[in-house]
Amino acid sequence: MTPVLEVSGLRTEFRTGAGTVPAVDGVSFSLMPGEIIGLVGESGSGKSVTGFSLLGLIDAPGQIVGGSVRLNGTELVGMAPQELRKRRGKEIAMIFQDPIATLNPLLTIGQQMEMALAAHERLGRRAAAEKSAEALARVGIPSPRERLSSYPHEFSGGMRQRAAIAIALLHRPAVVVADEPTTALDVSIQAQIIAEMKALARDYGVAMIWISHDLAVVSALASRILVMYAGRIVEEGPSARVLRDPRHPYTRGLIDSLPSATRPGEMLAQIPGSMPSLLSLPPGCAFAPRCAFASSACAARPDATAAGDRAWRCVHPLGQDRTDQKERAAS
Amino acid sequence: MKPRDQYLKVEGVSKIFSPRLNLGEKIARTLTRSAAPLGLQAVSDVSLRLPRGQTLGLVGESGCGKSTLGRLLAGIHEPSSGEVRLDGLPVMEHGKKTTTAVQTVFQDPFASLDPRMKVGDAVAEGPVLHGLVAPARAQSYVEGWFRRVGLDPSLSHRYPHQFSGGQRQRIAIARALAMQPKLLICDEPVASLDVSIQAQVINLFLELRRELELTCVFISHDLSVVRHVSDRVAVMYLGRIVELGETAQVFDRPAHPYTAALLDSVPRIAAEGEALVEFKPIEGEIPSPLNPPPGCHFAPRCPRATARCTAEAPPLAPVAPAREAACHFAPDQLREAATRHVA
């Protein structure tokens, strides 16, 4: 099977008065049809800018300055805007965190879906309504035909996000980039949407990049996980194994600082300090100033070390021998 | 129950938010003899006790009334009926807050700090105004609190925008504690913070709570955070407390189907040897609090619901030692939870 999306060495920068911010600094990964990968990181890690860059949604002062994004073999970086527009929404689509900001408050859901359809397809009104209602039904909106004439404010938060998802999936894109789509929702609604997204990926072969700060959400959804810190991917691999047995001290720190990792009432493990400013990153490993294992070897930028289906950027990786032996023994 | 166990005593507290009607609307209402109740019942007949030095977690989804209840406890809202007492004294009298012993830390420290006031002044304002500290000593008093919450005292001359989210939340905590409260209400204090910063703030909370022997109410939609910091937990749904009890017991063996369903819908990282965790979402959406379903509010989404549930709202009643639940089927739920827990 060939990957549907191949990203290599992607670099996106923002030129500000204070200097150049390397928001995405050499990100590479590939995505198979129907695969869901989770892109995790804290605020300022560059996970959302990575998502936007994939669709070419970067405006000045930001700029994609290097690397390649190949969608079904076609290079998107440097593509003419009108060519890119033909693919956006049709072959690659995005779901945003806040559906209130995505949906137009002055148009009915039906009108907005009709417009999204008309952007890539010639359809009669009736056929468009038919197709829209089908799409709403697929994401679990009850009585979809009646709902087409509702305005976004008549929907609950969860329904609005469902409608936004339905619009993103209208043309059955090969790739969907979802940027924190459940962060603003209640847990019971989040659980419903996660279950539905998994089913959609499975039934239609849609590949998904799920951007989130929440490790547990990603572990419930994604088969593979990419952990970002200060614009770089510091660790990647199958979700369950990365979360159970991380290689990078930052991944370990994130997992350990979750309240569920410690017995109730006891002090949580915490990562000291905070994310460095991207304007003044340390020359070597960006995590070194907060890392308990840092040494003089961390002053040089660590290369990615790959082993099987896992990779990490750290000169002092954790817990390696133990599980590798276990896995070898098991296989 | 000993008075010590009733340090915080909430008795039948309700809060109805009603719209102000203009003359035309009043006439229309009289003419049409509209009997429909006006207003939104945000909190409905809540009674609870909290012993001194304990932390009560308040959990629930949006619109369940947890923040409103927090504000009623803090004396920010006046209850429509019922009373809140702290150490035997009412928190509010004649619509006015009568004590400084309850203080609140809010979710968004950016909104709760005046952007044009130096943070040191924001921390000093309350204590000076209420005579807790002489104006001449305010500076050193503030610096003391800055140190306690892990901030460099020299930062007290800066403005809120010069701080990160985690630092701002530390300032908000310092400002609340500088009032020397007995009861601290924390309304989603870590919800807007990154995981690594969240851990730092939770640790600070645990530390200060122990040092200052605070009684706390910790409001959060995040069940894992509540489990970590609370001794007791109250689960709310559409204005009512549906379950109340010791934290570990409620989380391990929920007695209300809503609590059980809520716990099942939280994604968690699979433990060693466990496959990917499959969770079971609750069916349907949270109904509008403007028009809650009759009987038990959870009945339309509840797997156990029968005709009795929509006819008759179950009261919050004891189901086991020190545990209460508002469900006709709480004993069954509890029994099944016990077998599941063992398995």
List keywords for this structure.
A: 331 residues; alpha/beta; Rossmann fold; 2 domains; 8-stranded mixed sheet; 4-stranded antiparallel sheet; 12 strands; 23% strand; disordered C terminus; B: 343 residues
Largest sheet of chain B, if any?
8 strands, mixed
- The SSE order of chain B reads EHEEHEEEEEHHHHEHEHEEHHHEEH
Estimate nothing, just give the exact number of structural domains of chain B.
2
Strand order of the largest sheet of chain A: 6-7-8-3-9-10-12-11
Structural class by secondary-structure content of chain A? alpha/beta
> Which chains make the largest contact?
A-B, 43 and 43 residues
Strand content of chain B: 15-25%
Number of helices of chain A: 12
Helix content of chain B: 25-40%
What is the H/E string of chain A? EEEHEEHEHHHHHEHEHEEHHEEH
- Name the poorly predicted regions of chain A: 323-331
Give the mean pLDDT of chain B: 89
CATH superfamily of the largest domain in chain A: P-loop containing nucleotide triphosphate hydrolases
Q: CATH superfamily assignment of the largest domain in chain B?
A: P-loop containing nucleotide triphosphate hydrolases
Work out the strand percent of chain A. 15-25%
3D structure, described in words:
The complex is a heterodimer of chains A (331) and B (343). Chain A is built from 12 helices and 12 strands. With 331 residues, chain A is of the alpha/beta class. Chain A folds into 2 domains: 250 residues, P-loop containing nucleotide triphosphate hydrolases (Rossmann fold, 3-Layer(aba) Sandwich); 63 residues, no CATH class. In chain A, the strands form 2 sheets. An 8-stranded mixed sheet of chain A has the order 6-7-8-3-9-10-12-11, sandwiched between helices. A 4-stranded antiparallel sheet of chain A has the order 2-1-4-5. In chain A, a hairpin with a 2-residue loop joins strand 9 and strand 10. The radius of gyration of chain A is 21 Å and the shape is globular. Chain B is globular and about 65 Å long. Chain B starts with 7 loop residues before the first strand and ends with a helix. Chain B is built from 12 helices and 14 strands. In chain B, a hairpin with a 2-residue loop joins strand 6 and strand 7. The chains are: A alpha/beta (331), B alpha/beta (343). At the A-B interface, helix 7, helix 8, helix 9, helix 10 and helix 11 of A face helix 7, helix 8 and helix 10 of B.
